[in-house]
Design a protein that fits this description.
CATH architecture of the largest domain in chain A: Alpha-Beta Barrel
Largest sheet of chain B: 3 strands, antiparallel
Mean pLDDT of chain A: 91
Chains: A alpha/beta, B alpha+beta, C alpha/beta
Strand content of chain B: 15-25%
Low-confidence stretches of chain A: none
Radius of gyration of chain A: 23 Å
Strand order of the largest sheet of chain A: 12-10-9-8-7-6-14-15
CATH superfamily of the largest domain in chain A: Aldolase class I
CATH topology of the largest domain in chain A: TIM Barrel
Structural class of chain B: alpha+beta
Low-confidence stretches of chain B: none
Shape of chain B: elongated
CATH topology of chain B: Ribosomal Protein S8, Chain: A, domain 1
Oligomer: heterotrimer
Chain lengths: 465, 92, 367
């Protein structure tokens, strides 16, 4: 048999994860790996058949077919990755009633002026969205705290409904829920609106970093969650958890907090290394410590599932879909080419338009440079050197450090993070937090998949989550 | 700084440089060479770092064999991909 | 075969004019000259209006057809309705020649020039002018490449609302310039190609289709066709030789191929060579439910659906029933005695008329 190009990653002393550019993957031991490389086969007929079916080796008479197949698969991935399917983010205000320690975008204080979106820009924003995309339109309101300007939220929805059609829009409001009033609940009832709230753990953990003048950020969030659940339904609220030094010591408290609220969906991630987040004292853990935390969280989830509580952790579910679902590329933060512009267009409060949330953070930290693609009504991503370079520099299969990685076909690239941390879009992967985090997650998951039937069945469940 | 010497007949520059690339996150290193040897100086030279380096060297030697054996195939895949993306874009 | 759902075979009465070949069956006047000669079908001799025009007097045939159906009358007087507006599937045979020799072929190929079949088919498609789907099969329908392109062009001109479904081994699409000329026609005519792939490796596929090199051409063909924008239905027939290959084929389809609209898993039909090789090849569906389930799971994660064809419901585990399609063409479809009191009969695809004796897996009633 003839050897075809592939990559491998050691999982432990014995086992290796192997993959190729078509996105096929499998597991072999060291002896088998060496035998494949030396002889183009393992001499185990069943395994050799599997390796041939997945294009790791090829019958001599089919080499050209295997080449055409690998090429077609890679072409398919690139074409899907290049599809323009943006989420539209709108920042009605940068002002916020919280002053969280690791706030990524910075914020403006609640009484500051000049940090709200001009009402007159909203029709132009909606026109731009109609021009750029097709239904269903995904709108995400970011902040600051968007509900400080509920009047703008209402207006955005109303104009979007008129222009794009009520059945064609889905709106997510990212909020701390401190301001959720009966009026807002009533408004949301008949509309296609869901709320996304940060919930970092129990009261102690949450309030340590999420600072509201009342000292009660946690209680405000909990009250808001319950209010939405009871009046609008369970599916109208989801949580996002940023892992801090406090939570890392006590992973199970996160599950208990969610369980008490009847929330079985988690979205857990390490603190983003952008801009302001790491300069504060809330994060001192290493990625190794994060993965130890995650392993404990995983075991906790498994125990609850055995008791009939089917928790799903969506960060892992995204990595799992990337591994096992060909064509899954809808998650902007883990794709190649990167999701900048292709998967996100952000309208900032000041009328500037960005290709990602991260780009607006870069702007905040580097005010002397222009990271925007212009202003509402006068946008061009193609005219911007920043976006041109960003997209072309975000094909990970061309990156040193990525080209030999077995997780390459499933991973993404984050040119903004590389600019932020290393000053250029490609970056040294050995120093990249993005690489360290995603590689660790992939390794964790494929190792679980390979070593335990229990974990394998959980992972297969989450493929559909 | 302790030094590790590796014979050039056993390790290509590609293997050495790729291995050191990933050693950066573990420790600082310096590379020098003579006619027949690579010399790697490690800032932290404990068993763990050295075994990590050897694992990397070993893996990259395997990767080098794959790359050598499949270079021609990789090249034709690249040509094929461009043709297939081209024709797909035209058919849309 | 009296118990099939729709009879398509009739006898010409003794003494009727010696018509033979393809005809448009008409139930009313006037006859308009067209692509094929026309013949009036009368219910009985008292309804004959114009004794001058060619006619068939056959009440059974009269009740079985619609005005404008197409029949093939052979020299011995057998009348087969080949295109029927009442049928659930209409299929035309373009050739009996084939470059594969599938071990389970239900219609074993013959050699020799039979290009007249394709010429007749072109006329039949245009005369029938259906706003619906016509299947084209063989043999290998793409064997006569230029003639096939001419068939497409003529259909575009004279029967543009007709949708074509072509059952091919896909090897012709390995030729990119032929693929491109088919792809150009997809702008003007709705068509899709059913292409079987029996394994993701050449050893198993080539053995089953009895042709070395077939795998290479079929895979390249599917890649070329899909990337050129041609719609493909990927087909798979599980046998004892290849059932375990199905999940690999499903993953291959999702990672490598484009434009696969559907994966169809088809139960073997006990006709032709499949009858001869039945004992070596046939695998009862209950011997591979896990494989079906796993393949369905792989495809469910993607946008490519997987369906099961020609499976009586009683031979599938219940959770796979939703994937099953009532698919057997009505002229060869029947329900054995045991089915009459089955509560699922109306949702079930039933059996091939050829499934009798050892070829019939005993039906199980749902009460």
């Amino acid at each position: 048999m003839k050897l075809m190009p592939f990559n491998f990653e050691p999982l432990d002393e014995e086992s290796y994860f192997i993959s190729n550019i078509a996105g096929f993957s499998s597991f072999v031991n060291l002896k088998q790996l060496e035998s494949i490389i030396d002889f183009g086969q393992t001499f185990n007929p069943e395994l050799d058949r599997l390796l041939e079916n997945k294009l790791f080796i090829s019958a001599p008479s089919s080499v050209n077919t295997a080449i055409a197949s690998l090429a077609s698969a890679l072409g398919k991935r690139v074409t899907i990755g290049l599809e323009f399917k943006p989420i539209f983010m709108i920042v009605p205000t940068l002002r916020c009633d919280h002053s969280c320690k690791y706030c990524q975008v910075s914020r403006a204080s609640i009484n500051a002026s000049g940090f709200d979106l001009d009402k007159k820009l909203i029709p132009k924003i909606i026109d731009t969205i109609a021009l750029l995309s097709t239904p269903p339109y995904k709108l995400e309101l970011q902040g600051g705290e968007p509900l400080l300007r509920f009047d703008l939220v209402e207006l955005i929805y109303q104009l979007a409904e008129e222009k794009l059609g009520g059945d064609s829009i889905e709106m997510v409001i990212a909020t701390s829920l401190s301001l959720v009033s009966d009026e807002i609940i009533d408004w949301a009832r008949s509309r296609n609106v869901v709320f996304s709230v940060s919930l970092d753990g129990n009261q102690l953990v949450h309030d340590k970093n999420r600072i509201h003048p009342s000292g009660n950020a946690y209680q405000l969030a909990i009250n808001g969650i319950k209010k939405i659940q009871s009046q609008l339904g369970m599916h109208r609220i989801s949580t996002v958890t940023t892992v801090t030094d406090e939570l890392i010591k006590n992973p199970l408290s996160l599950l208990d907090t969610h369980k008490a609220l009847g929330l079985l969906d988690l979205f857990v991630r390490p603190v983003s290394p952008y801009g302001f987040a790491t300069t504060r004292s809330s994060v001192n853990y290493s990625m190794q410590e994060y993965m130890q935390f995650y392993a404990q969280l995983w075991d906790g989830i498994k125990q609850y599932r055995a008791q009939g509580l089917p928790f799903v952790e969506h960060s892992a579910a995204i990595h799992i879909k990337k591994l096992f679902v060909p064509g899954f590329s809808s998650y902007a933060d883990l794709k190649s080419p990167s999701g900048v512009v292709l998967n996100c267009v952000l309208f900032n409060y000041d009328g500037h338009v960005y290709g990602s949330d991260e780009s607006r953070m870069l702007q905040k930290v580097n005010p002397q440079l222009d990271f925007s693609a212009g202003t509402v009504g006068e946008i061009s991503f193609a005219d911007s050197d920043y976006y041109k370079n960003l997209t072309s520099a975000s094909f990970n299969f061309l990156h040193p450090g990525c080209e030999n990685c077995a997780f390459l076909p499933f991973c993404g690239s984050d040119p903004c993070q590389n600019i932020s941390m290393q000053g250029e879009p490609i970056g040294d992967k050995s120093l990249s937090t993005f690489c360290e985090y995603h590689k660790s997650m992939f390794k964790f998951l494929v190792n679980k998949y390979n070593t335990s039937a229990d974990d394998k069945s959980l992972i297969e469940d989450w493929i559909h989550a | 700084m302790d030094k590790i010497s590796l014979s050039k007949s056993n390790y290509s520059e590609w293997v050495i440089r790729n291995s050191l690339y990933w050693l950066t996150s573990v420790t600082n290193w310096q590379l020098s060479d003579s006619d027949s040897f690579w010399t790697i100086s490690l800032k932290e030279n404990n068993d763990q770092v050295v075994s990590q380096l050897h694992r990397l060297l070993n893996d990259y030697k395997l990767r080098e064999i794959i790359a050598n054996k499949t270079q021609r195939i990789t090249d034709s895949i690249a040509v094929n991909v461009l043709t297939s993306i081209d024709s797909r874009l035209k058919s849309q | 075969m009296p118990e099939v759902l729709r009879n398509d075979l009739f006898e010409r009465a003794a003494g009727e004019s010696k018509l033979s070949g393809f005809y448009v069956l008409r139930k009313c006047q006037p006859l308009i000259p067209g692509f094929l000669p026309q013949v009036i079908v009368y219910e009985n001799s008292s309804t004959v209006i114009n004794p001058e025009t060619p006619a068939l007097i056959n009440s059974e045939l009269f009740r079985a057809i619609e005005d404008g159906d197409i029949a093939n009358i052979n020299p011995n007087g057998k009348i087969r309705v080949i295109l029927s507006r009442r049928a659930n599937h209409n299929t035309l045979l373009l050739t009996e020649r084939c470059d594969n020799r599938c071990q389970f072929c239900s219609q074993p190929p013959k050699d020799g020039d039979d290009s007249w079949l394709l010429e007749q088919a072109i006329l039949a498609i245009c005369a029938f002018n259906l706003d619906g789907e016509i299947g084209l099969s063989g043999g290998e329908p793409l064997l006569y490449r230029d003639d096939f392109i001419r068939l497409l062009d003529t259909t575009i001109e004279h029967a543009p609302r007709t949708r074509l479904h072509i059952l091919t081994n896909g090897r012709a699409f390995a030729d990119l310039s032929f693929t491109k000329s088919v792809a150009q026609r997809t702008e003007h005519l709705s068509m899709s190609f059913g292409i079987p792939l029996y394994a993701a490796n050449s050893a198993v596929h080539d053995k089953l289709v009895g042709a070395e090199g077939a795998f290479n051409e079929t895979v390249k063909g599917i890649i070329n066709a899909g990337n050129s924008g041609i719609n493909i239905e990927l087909r798979f027939i599980p046998t004892s030789e290849n059932a375990q290959e199905l999940p690999f084929v499903a993953e291959y389809a999702n990672r490598v191929f484009t434009n696969i609209n559907q994966i169809s898993v088809m139960n073997m039909e006990p006709m032709g060579w499949a009858r001869k090789n039945w004992d070596e090849l046939y695998l009862h569906p209950l011997e591979y439910p896990l494989i079906l389930e796993y393949a369905a799971k792989i495809t469910r994660q993607n946008s490519t659906p997987l369906y099961l064809f020609n499976y009586p419901l009683c031979q599938l585990p219940e959770h796979l029933h939703e994937l099953s399609v009532q698919s057997i063409s009505d002229w060869k479809n029947y329900y054995p005695e045991e089915c009459s009191s089955c509560s699922m009969k109306s949702q079930c695809g039933g059996f091939f008329a050829s499934a009798k004796g050892k070829f019939l897996q005993s039906p199980q009633r749902y009460i």
